[in-house]
Design brief:
Helices cover about 40% and strands about 20% of the residues. It is an alpha+beta fold and about 260 residues long. It has 2 domains: about 200 residues, no CATH class; about 45 residues. It has a 5-stranded mixed β-sheet, sandwiched between helices. Strands 1-2 form a two-stranded antiparallel ribbon. Strand 1 and strand 2 form a beta hairpin.
Length: about 260
């Protein structure tokens, strides 16, 4: 059986069991099926038309295809390839597809021409044999893994749960690898989330790790703003007030990073 592929990426190249790979003959998903019914905004339609070259179903992770027990929350995991015509991962497109397939968890594999990468990405991903950075050649590609996950609700906060799209780092296709870890499909999904977001396969305590990551990002942004405010402040009392807040934020950040 010839398996589905997006660029050079397929279920086997990702390290997924061959039993979950989709046959190539059944893998193509026409873009129109996602934006014609129901109709979408002109902006989102343009994202599909202009930013996306093709959409391919690469694999279907179910208990019977990967040999794990059924999950209590996760029914199946779709692995979907998106070949794109743009630099950044098409987040709006992925969010719309995920909304249409709300009964399924989806892991996206975004594939782009390597020349879309910025200078740093090119240096990191296309180093020559002698250690010097080389420019990507025509036909070379990069890929990034992405998925949606419910944001953990912080203590003392109420309201509806919110989804966030996480996009991993861009890398060479041959460097993209996934491992199927867990005894149930719920545990497998948690591990896949950890692999995309944190670069490891430890799916335990993931909400706590995400909450900590969010808090660190917020404190880092707060510290940068306070440092700017402190440098611009002319009034001595105001400078002292900002300094106290800055010191407190830095201490909180230091404790979180321990």
């Amino acid at each position: 059986m010839t398996v589905a592929h997006c660029g050079t990426i397929s279920a086997p190249t990702l390290g997924l069991p061959a039993t979950c790979a989709i046959p190539e003959a059944k893998s193509a998903l026409p873009k129109q099926m996602f934006y014609l019914k129901p109709p979408v905004s002109s902006r989102l339609k343009q994202r599909f038309v202009g930013d996306v070259a093709s959409i391919t179903m690469l694999a279907l992770l179910r208990p019977n295809t990967i040999g794990v027990a059924a999950g209590r929350k996760v029914r199946e995991v779709l692995v979907m390839g998106i070949e794109q015509n743009c630099k950044d991962a098409p987040v709006e497109v992925m969010e719309h597809i995920a909304k249409l397939r709300s009964g399924s968890n989806i892991l996206f594999v975004c594939v782009r021409d390597a020349r879309f990468g910025d200078e740093n990405e090119g240096s990191a991903n296309f180093a020559s044999a002698n250690g010097n950075a080389s420019q990507p050649k025509s036909g070379e590609t990069q890929c990034a893994l992405a998925l949606q996950r419910i944001l953990p609700v912080r203590a003392g906060h109420q309201g509806e749960s919110q989804m966030r799209t996480y996009v991993g780092t861009w890398q060479k296709p041959q460097a993209a690898a996934l491992s199927v870890n867990g005894e149930t499909l719920d545990e497998v999904w948690q591990s896949l989330c950890a692999q995309v977001i944190f670069g490891d396969d430890d799916g335990s305590n993931l909400d706590a790790r995400l909450a900590k990551q969010t808090a660190i990002a917020e404190l880092t942004a707060q510290i940068a703003k306070l440092e700017g405010d402190h440098a611009r402040a002319k009034d001595g009392a105001k400078r002292n007030e900002i300094f106290v807040r800055l010191h407190k934020a830095k201490k909180q950040l230091e404790e979180l990073q321990q």
